[in-house]
Design brief:
The chain has about 200 residues and is an alpha+beta fold. It has 1 helix and 8 strands.
Length: about 200
């Protein structure tokens, strides 16, 4: 059994930390921990904003693709019933009409000479209060196509390439669509935006 040394000096196994040393160590660990958590939080914010940017690009592309798809179909009139492809046109909304399906039972098959089937008489419009692109098919309720939309502008051209006057037949539609992130960039504090352009020739 080992006892105390005769000179009164403690052995190595009896040495310990003083209160001051413990406080310094605790402070160091506290500073290091705060730095690590701050770095992790910053990385998490960056990752979330990058995901937001990807969603913004996907949403604006979906919105433009949807408008272009319906605009390309507008005016399809194989039964020569006199369909006007573009009507009730406005700066941020448009009504597009076509006959593309229905003869073989409901919403399928060949064109049937009317515009009573789904997606044959649609209104596409920008809802600025919600930041969404909406579609109304026939007499149904509005359906949200996508969000993160900050602006939608239509331009209507006549056969000669000039701006179509009221009542004049529309031959081409120009589309400018803008989207914006819902949250701000953590580095700059600003929202990022995307602008897409498109132009579609309407069937006449």
């Amino acid at each position: 059994m080992t006892g105390p040394r005769p000179d009164g000096i403690r052995g190595r196994g009896e040495e310990g930390f003083s209160l001051a040393e413990l406080l310094v160590c605790a402070l160091i660990f506290l500073v290091l921990g705060a730095s690590v958590f701050a770095l992790l939080g910053e990385l998490q914010q960056k990752a979330a904003f990058q995901a937001e940017m990807r969603s913004l690009i996907q949403d604006t592309r979906l919105a433009l693709d949807t408008v272009e798809r319906f605009a390309r179909q507008a005016g399809n009139d194989p039964h020569r019933t006199g369909i006007e492809g573009v009507s009730l046109r406005g700066p941020s909304s448009v009504r597009l009409r076509t006959d593309i399906k229905g003869a073989a039972g409901g919403d399928k098959g060949d064109p049937d000479g009317d515009m009573e089937d789904s997606d044959e008489d649609v209104v596409l419009r920008f809802n600025p209060s919600a930041g969404t692109l909406e579609m109304v098919s026939g007499s149904g309720p509005p359906q949200i196509v996508t969000g993160r939309i900050s602006d939608l502008a239509f331009r209507y051209y006549n056969e000669s390439g000039g701006m179509a006057a009221e009542g004049e037949r529309v031959c081409r539609i120009g589309i400018t669509l803008r989207g914006a992130t819902l949250s701000a960039d953590p580095r700059t504090g600003r929202r990022h935006g995307v602008e897409l352009e498109g132009e579609v020739r309407v069937r006449t």
